Amino acid sequence: MAELEREQSHTDAARTHWHVLLRLRWLLGGIIGLAFAVGRTLEALWLDAGTPRDRVYADVAGWGLLGGLAIWLTLTWVIRQEQRYQAGLEQALREQQRANSQLALLSEVNRSIVDSATLDEILDAAMTFPLRLVRAHAAAVLLLDPAGAIETRANGAPASELARLRKLLGVTERVVEARRPQVIQGDHGVAETCLALPLHDGMALLGWIELYLERPVEIAGDELSLLETIANEIAEAIASARRRSREERAVYQLERAIADERARIARDIHDGIAQSLAFVRMRVDLWTDWIERDPARLRAELAELKTTLREQIRELRRAIFALRPVQFDELGFVGGLRRYIVEFAGQHDWDIRVDLAGAPPAIPPEVEAIAFRVVQEALTNVARHAGASVVEVTIGQADDGLRLVVRDDGKGFEPGEAPDIPGHVGLRQMRERLAALRGQLTILSRRGSGTELRAWIPLPAEQSVSGHH
């Protein structure tokens, strides 16, 4: 900055010198012309005394004019050359100042983005900095969410007015078709000009920034490049903020799944093993009186105890199995889920049929967590209540979402009975969690015909693959 100030000072001094020379060139030309005339007069009087006077006067006038004109032309040429040089220097200085101003703006954009803790703050920066650069009177930021809906933020004019201008100028169509900034001049009575800056994350269109100017304008190439750079910085920040949001949501879903699983295991132990053992302890207190008085009854009690303990050992093993970590990191979601299903079925001697081939290759962590919990809860209820021998688990993609089906050939139940069956609290919790994600849970059953559980979880647009419906 100090160097630029010194250059500006030198330029101002040079400009002052030009003005002095421009004023003096007439005086200097006259003085030099007069000197030539005086010199020629003296030469004629002393050296060429015989020269006619009229010729002397002509020579004096000619040499005086020639000398003065030569000096005037020389000074004029020197001044013009210096002016051109200084004009070029001033232009270079202005360009340098402009470049420094643009770099300062970029630096401010970067600092603002780095300091932004939320997507809202990033969107504020998205409107503020481009607005300052082109001095627009209004701006808007439009973001596409994964479902395709458009979120709009406006500054400087009501959102409804900008929506009207957007439609008249055909901004949306132009932005969707192009990857570069678009200058859209108004016609058909629309005096506005819109500068649209697309926001891309790779090949995906995140949205765009709109800057509205009140008259047709020409945007310089370097300004357009700077706006594109700012738009790219903002797009990267928006994409990062969305990734952070997804990661935070996934962590929340995981923590909630862990809490739900702990509550389920505690409930299972309390309702099953703990109550059964308490009942056994009460019965044992009576057995001491039956050893001599009623040995036959004692034998029947011991046989019943063996059955009860066998069931509780199986329940305890099921609880321990539920605590084992599923190896999603090592095997992936599909591989880890397949291993879990097969091992769970092995504990109950089921004929298990698993079809996971239709699962999409990439599933968000929050969807993986709830999908696993649905399958886990469904298999647990089959083990407790169905008395099934054949169980089928199918996962695929349908209607831009993940579809899960768990079907058994057990005893089933009549519609309306499920909420009253012990152990179905977990399914009610799953229904609530799916509803929070805009998902669905459906249970189809009839007594003697088995049960089919169907779940559907919406997938973000980038995970949804057409052709799997």
Cα distance spanning the termini:
62 Å
* Average pLDDT reading: 72
Number of strands: 10
Specify the helix fraction band.
55-70%
- Largest pleated sheet: 5 strands, antiparallel
Number of helices: 10
- Strand line-up of the largest beta sheet: 2-1-5-4-3
Under CATH, the topology of the largest domain can be stated as Heat Shock Protein 90
Shape: rod-shaped
The number of distinct structural domains comes to: 3
Amount of beta strand: 15-25%
Order of helices and strands: HHHEEHHEEEHHHEHEEHEE
- List the uncertain runs: 1-5, 465-469
CATH superfamily of the largest domain: Histidine kinase-like ATPase, C-terminal domain
User: According to CATH, what is the class of the largest domain?
Assistant: Alpha Beta
Query: How does the helix and strand content classify structurally?
Result: alpha+beta
**CATH architecture annotation name of the largest domain:** 2-Layer Sandwich
3D structure, described in words:
By secondary structure, the protein is an alpha+beta fold. The chain folds into three domains: 2-112; 118-244, GAF domain (Beta-Lactamase, 2-Layer Sandwich), CATH 3.30.450; 328-469, Heat Shock Protein 90 (2-Layer Sandwich). Helix content is 63%, strand content 15%. It has helices at residues 2-46, 53-115, 119-134, 159-169, 171-177, 221-293, 295-323, 328-346, 365-386, 425-436; strands spanning 138-144, 150-155, 182-185, 193-201, 204-213, 351-355, 390-398, 401-408, 440-445, 451-458. The protein has a five-stranded antiparallel β-sheet with strand order 2-1-5-4-3, with helices on both faces. Strands 6-7-8-10-9 form a five-stranded mixed β-sheet, covered by helices on one side. Helix 3 (119-134) packs antiparallel against helix 6 (221-293), helix 6 packs parallel to helix 9 (365-386) and helix 9 (365-386) packs antiparallel against helix 10. The chain is rod-shaped, with a radius of gyration of 44 Å. The model is unreliable at 1-5 and 465-469 (pLDDT under 50).
